[in-house]
Write a structure and sequence with these properties.
Two copies of one chain form a homodimer.
Chain A (H helix, E strand, L loop, with lengths): L4 H12 L6 H9 L7 H13 L4 E4 L5 E4 L6 E5 L5 E4 L5 H6 L4 E12 L1 H5 L2
Parallel strand pairs in A: 3-5
Antiparallel strand pairs in A: 1-2, 3-4
Helix pairs in contact in A: 1-2, 1-3, 2-3
Chain A binds a DNA duplex (30 and 30 nucleotides) through helix 1 and helix 3.
DNA sequence: ATGATAATAGTAATCATTACTGATAAGGAA
DNA sequence: TTCCTTATCAGTAATGATTACTATTATCAT
């Protein structure tokens, strides 16, 4: 896995923000530094970064994929109204439960869907 | 929401099995009863059944969507080798945690990814 | 520096899902 | 039962996110 300015720019962008971005949002952001970067390059690097565990991804209920440079174990809450994604701490990990049962868990994803505090108040 | 033989066939198929099926697998299965059912009809019904909560869906790490007629709260383990999907009980629910914090959680999805018992033994 | 080759830009292809349209059938009212 | 309204359908075309391809470029070990 070579280090390229494209991969570095993508990773640095995601790490510099505590939000969640789609591939094309990342493409737009990184183009400010590397104007002729290709969307394919963004996808390829996102995919290798996912594989190496340097980033994670969440999916909203309408199938949009968002990427996250904050990789300390945490869960996500997706608001179905404002589409914001909130982080929260993983309650008890299911890993232990499964690994005591003979499974090898490489990672777990917990996503809750509903309406966030703000949208409830502004209903 | 009208009751049609297409929707009934899809729901009955999913409820009759304790496995997880993709849209096109469901299409193939239901075509044995309704040979000229359209793939679009399968997708439309899966989507309304998801919305009404009569079925649920899981996604493997390679982005394939699978549907499940068993809707008692449970979590999924996706084996990255054999691609099988295993059900397991939800540990402690994150709902309580979030709702005490002012969020309205309509549903939660917990998915673990890794290698299953069988694949570990036959490695 | 040089060479091997991994990664890139740009573009074309893929493929799951959705949208469209005229025809069909579910199910309430008479 | 028969008729009407309209949701749903079959069949097909369109969409759009993601992936594949290819000639070129840039990384990095030697």
């Amino acid at each position: 896995m070579r280090e390229t300015k494209q991969k570095t720019a993508i990773l640095e962008f995601l790490r510099s923000k505590r939000q969640h971005y789609s591939a094309s949002q990342i493409y737009d952001a990184v183009r400010e530094k590397i104007p002729n970067i290709s969307l394919g390059t963004v996808y390829r690097n996102l995919s290798t970064l996912l594989e190496s565990g340097e980033i994670i991804s969440v999916e909203t209920s309408d199938k949009c994929v968002f990427y996250d440079g904050f990789i300390k174990d945490h869960a996500h809450f997706v608001c179905q109204k404002c589409k914001n994604i909130f982080d929260f701490e993983l309650p008890t990990s299911a890993k232990e439960h499964l690994s005591s049962d003979g499974f090898d868990v490489s990672y777990e994803r917990l996503v809750c869907y509903g309406t966030c505090k703000n949208c409830l108040n502004n209903n």
